[in-house]
Amino acid sequence: MLYLASQSPRRRQLLEQLGLNFAVLDVDVPEQREPGEPAADYVSRVAREKAGAGLLQVAGVPGAVVLGADTEVVLDGDVFGKPADAAAAAAMLQRLQGRSHTVISRVWLVSAGREEQAQSDSDVHFAPMDEAAIARYVASGEPYGRAGAYAIQGLAAAHIRHLNGSYTGVMGLPLFETAQLLRHFGLLA
Questions:
Q1: Catalytic residue among 26, 41, 70, 121
Q2: 70 among known catalytic residues
Q3: pLDDT tens-digit map of 50-71
Q4: CA 181 vs CA 54, 105, 114, 115, 173: distances in Å
Q5: Which cofactors are reported in the record for this sequence (predicted)?
Q6: Long-range contacts of 185-188 (CB under 8 A, 24+ apart)
Q7: Domain map (residue ranges) of the chain
Q8: What is the CATH number of domain 2-184?
Q9: I want to staple 80 with a disulfide (CB 3.0 to 4.6 A). Which of 15, 115, 117, 148 is the partner?
C-alpha cells in the first residue's frame, strides 16, 4: 500500500495523475534549515523526515511504502519557504522578479526494509514585475502556502519568462522522477 506523507493538495493531485491508489498521512515535521546546511541537503533531509514520520504511522501495515517530498525555492543561497504574511510574500517576489532562481525538489520512498530518493532541480526565470504587479499578485491570495510565494500553475504563470527543468517539480512533486521511484518499488508498471 502506498501512502503520501503530505497534506498538500498539489502533491495529491499530481500523484493521482499516475493513476495510483494511495492514502494520505498527516505528518508534522519541522522545516528548519540547520546553520551551514546546503540547500539541497536541507530539502532532501526534510523530504526523508516526512517519509520516515509517515512510515512510523503505518509501521504495522504489511508492505507499506511511504512517499515524502519537499520543494523549496533557492536564490543566492537563501531558501525561500512559505511566506508568513503579505509583507513576506511581497519581499520574496521583489527578490525573485527579473531574475532566475532554482527550485529544488526531493522525493523519498521508504518502506520497512528499503529507501530510495530522487531529485529534480529546475531553473525558473521571472520576468520583471513592478510594485503594482507584485501587490496585485499578493492580493490574489495565491502566494500563501507556497514556497517562494508563487504557484507556477496559477496566476504566476503570466510572470514566468522561462523554465528549464520540471514543471511538476516546481509545483511540488516531479512526476518523472517520482514515477521512476515507484517503478523501482514495483508500484507502477
A1: 70
A2: yes
A3: 999 999 999 999 999 999 999 9
A4: 17, 14, 12, 10, 12
A5: a divalent metal cation
A6: 185/65, 185/109, 185/111, 185/114, 185/116, 187/2, 187/20, 187/65, 188/18, 188/20
A7: 2-184
A8: 3.90.950.10
A9: 148
